[in-house]
Amino acid sequence: FLEAFESLLRFAENRTSSLFETAYRPMAKEAAEPVKELFTDISLYILGAETTVESAVLRFFDSLFPLVYSRLINPGITDLSEDYTECLRLTRQDINPFGHYSKNMVTELSKSLWASRMLSQALSLGIEVINSTEHAALSKECSRALVKMQYCPHCQGLTLIRPCVGYCLNVMRGCLASVAELDAQWREFISTLEYLTNEMAASHELETALAGIWSSINEAILHAQLNGPQLSATVIPPVLGQLLQPQGANSRCSQVPAQSRFDAECAVVLLNVLFLPCREFISYMKRSRTFYASIAERLCDGDLVMRDSSTCWNGEDVV
């Protein structure tokens, strides 16, 4: 699941990087690091890190605004000092140069990535539960009951007699009572996995959100360019003072190539790589809903016990 998700994430990152390289070359080199940080933060969020999609997206736009302002809106700026850059970063939060596009991007990503984050954490939790119950500790009473069931007939020379089904079930249920208590929680866990998988697959929402990051960023940059004169008038006098005197504003819109059909098809293929194994896995897991409740039945099956009306051992005698 994580490998497939990372492939989808890398596709979205490459698509976003190509946006700057083809449409915004003056800032492409400097924008590479913020783009990388954005997708790293998204990946960490999926893995359960103490972060949010909102903080990752807004931090990206904080880093993007100084570049947009100095390379596109006021291309005459040549020296971007640390103080000036930080001033622009702080100003972004006040003047909202990217309009509603930054908030829309937060909303779309938060909704679609939440289920992926929860599924990743749920799978990790399931692994811990399975590992912790792989080797059940047997009490002294359980060990005595198992010996009595398996070997006491041998003392009477009855080496071929097997335990009766009911007797075996009583012994195994007693030995595995603590493990069987996981039944209700395990059933709920399987239902949660199924719900989260359906949430992720609904209407290709995850694919749409990730593959659309580049488009949201492009719309945000175009919005800032179109409002370049107003931004310059707002930023320079009241906020930045004499830190910089720009050499004119430029609000020309870059021509951005439309997303090709190949890109869309590639994203859908990656999505299928992600979701088809998930669906198959959940289908398999659904068959194990009763696993912890039916361990005794599974153990008292086959050659261990006598299932027909033949002679069997009931713990005290041959019946």
Automatic annotation (TrEMBL):
<dbReference type="InterPro" id="IPR001863">
    <property type="entry name" value="Glypican"/>
</dbReference>
<dbReference type="GO" id="GO:0005886">
    <property type="term" value="C:plasma membrane"/>
</dbReference>
<keyword id="KW-0732">Signal</keyword>
<keyword id="KW-0325">Glycoprotein</keyword>
<keyword id="KW-0472">Membrane</keyword>
<keyword id="KW-0357">Heparan sulfate</keyword>
<comment type="similarity">
    <text>Belongs to the glypican family.</text>
</comment>
<dbReference type="Pfam" id="PF01153">
    <property type="entry name" value="Glypican"/>
</dbReference>
<comment type="function">
    <text>Cell surface proteoglycan.</text>
</comment>
<keyword id="KW-1003">Cell membrane</keyword>
<dbReference type="GO" id="GO:0009986">
    <property type="term" value="C:cell surface"/>
</dbReference>
<dbReference type="InterPro" id="IPR019803">
    <property type="entry name" value="Glypican_CS"/>
</dbReference>
<keyword id="KW-0336">GPI-anchor</keyword>
<dbReference type="GO" id="GO:0098552">
    <property type="term" value="C:side of membrane"/>
</dbReference>
<dbReference type="GO" id="GO:0005576">
    <property type="term" value="C:extracellular region"/>
</dbReference>
<dbReference type="GO" id="GO:0016477">
    <property type="term" value="P:cell migration"/>
</dbReference>
<keyword id="KW-0654">Proteoglycan</keyword>
<dbReference type="GO" id="GO:0090263">
    <property type="term" value="P:positive regulation of canonical Wnt signaling pathway"/>
</dbReference>
<keyword id="KW-0449">Lipoprotein</keyword>
<dbReference type="GO" id="GO:1905475">
    <property type="term" value="P:regulation of protein localization to membrane"/>
</dbReference>
<protein>
    <submittedName>
        <fullName>GPC5 protein</fullName>
    </submittedName>
</protein>
